[in-house]
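look at this fold:
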Amino acid sequence: MNVIFIENFQIYKRFVNVKTIGGIETNTLDVIKELKKRGHKVWTPSNQEEPEWVENGDVDIIAASTFDPLTYLQVSKYKKQFRENAAVVIHGHTTVEDLKGNFLPDMPIFNLIFKYWLKVLYGSAHLLITPSNYSKKCLEQIQTTMTYPIVPVSNGIRVEYFVEKESYRREFRKFLNQNYGVPKNARIILNVGLSWKKKGVDTFSEIAKNFPDYYFVWVGPINKNPDIEEAIKLKNVIFTGFYPDIREAYFGADLFLNTSYVENQGIPLIEAAICKLP
C-alpha cells in the first residue's frame, strides 16, 4: 500500500514546550515504522518531500493521528485530491474527556468547542480507529449521526523493548541521587506521563503528603500548572521532566502509582506491568 500519514506533533510540542507528546506520538511513530517494515510506502508531509508515487496519484490510504486545524486541512486536501482511490483512516486517540482542562481551562464553552471540533475532524474519515472500548464510547457520544465505523484497536506495546537489565535500576537511582539527593536505597513511588491536569497531579501530591517517608517521582514532560507548583513544595515529590530511557524508571522504582482521572488506554500501566513493577 501507499500511505500518506499526516502527523503534526511539532505543533503541540512548540505550543506546550515539551519534547514528546507521549503515547499518541509513540504509537504513531511505531505504526509508521511497522508499515515501512512490512514493505508499504509511507509519506509524512510534515518532514519529507513529496515522493513520485504521490505526484502520480498512486495513493491508497490517507491516515492521520493529530487533531489540529492543519491536520484537518491536510486531510481535506488529500481526500479531495485522491477521492477516486484513497480511503481516509483517522486514529481517534483524542476525546473531549481527554482534552478537558489540558490545552484550555475546563469550562463548558471550551469543552463545547472541543466537541464540535472533534466531530468535524473525525467526520472526514471513512474509518476511525480508537485505542479502547471506552474511547469508542466517548467518540460515539459526540456524533448526532454516525458517518463512519469506529473500531477499537489497542495502541500496542513493543514488549521486547522492556527486557530487564541490571544497569536500569542502578542508573535511575544514580540519576535521582545526583540530581535530587534521593538516597539510593529510598523507596520510590513512580508515575509516568505528561503532567496534564487529567493525570491527577493534585491527587499525586496529596498522597505524597500522607507518606513523607517515600519519594514520589513523576517521569515525563512537564506541563507547568498550579498543581505542579503546589506539589513540588513537598520535599518528597520530584518531577524529572523528560527522561531518555523510560525502562530505567520502571525497573528503578518500587511501586507504580497511576492517578489519572481519565485514560483512553493507559499505556504506562501496561508498561509497568510488563516490567513487573507492582
